[in-house]
Amino acid sequence: MTSAVIEIEGLRKTFRSLRRGSRVAVDGFDLLVEAGQVHGFLGPNGSGKTTTLRALLGLVRADQGRMRVLGASAPEQLPQVAGRVGAIVESPQFFGNFTAYRTLRLLALAGGVPVTRVDDVLEQVGLLDRAHERVKGYSLGMKQRLAVASALLKRPELLILDEPANGLDPAGIREMRDLMRALAERGVTVLVSSHILAEIQVICDHVTIISRGRRAATGRVAEVLAGHDRHECLVRADDLARAEELLVAAGLAVTGHPDHLVVGGAPDPALVNRTLGEQGLWVRELTPLRPDLESVFLDLTGTPEPPGVPRQVGGTADDATVGREIDLGTREVGA
């Protein structure tokens, strides 16, 4: 049986300023993360994602709602479970003249963590050979690794990562993916947000999408994708005009393109093949078009998809370098 590690019900937060007036950042948002999940938390800037994480960790005070972390009411009882939670929210900040080793050693001493953990976490994030260099000489990706290492010092039961792949190259993204999987295998629950949607699709077993402060979708990744499957396939044949006529006559939705057709409403692609084959028109290509997390995200959040870009062909992406990184703008507090 699983138990809830994070529970958020009806969270609402409004920011007020003299210059900008009132802005509702989170509007009745719900989130449930079960023990052992690698749970993706997605949303464009301004959707309320970072505000939700900050409220959950007691960094901002919510106006309304109920939150629990590891069974403790948040933020009132957070000190009771703080030692079991590791978190990175927004861009990590470190003293530039400190080395990575000194930084983590001070954090370990302050948190009552054995200093022997420092080398362990540096090795986990791939910084052990750079541990005695000053942080001011680190790249953005290396600083991100150091932030993850700091979150791992306490051997957390719950790890909350906001954009952990920020600044990492493809090899670093793969290493971060492997690290999260290894942690999940050891029973650590991971809540991760990222704009690299192909990577979230590979790493996470569950996902929650937030848009305009409200929950737009939640569930197993496969179930969320299946709910947006339009049963489309890409068709190439010798005579596209004739093929389009036959498929429309068979009651299928057809969109014509210069070198292919997109056929909708055919749960079984064999129907397309049979329709054309019975009329002596042979298919050169017949490929199911499956929704990927990127297309579902863009649909649910109201972000227009670039024209002329087909949805993912076949199954899910198996590498972080497959698919596009969605640049949704600069992150800011309350985004």
From TrEMBL:
Q: Which family does it belong to?
A: Belongs to the ABC transporter superfamily.
Q: What protein name does the entry list?
A: ABC transporter ATP-binding protein
- UniProt cross-references to SUPFAM superfamilies, sorted A to Z: P-loop containing nucleoside triphosphate hydrolases
Q: Which intervals of the chain are annotated as region Disordered?
A: 302-322
Record bears the keyword Nucleotide-binding: yes
Q: Where is the ABC transporter domain?
A: 6-237
Which UniProt keywords are given for this protein, alphabetically ordered?
ATP-binding, Nucleotide-binding, Transport
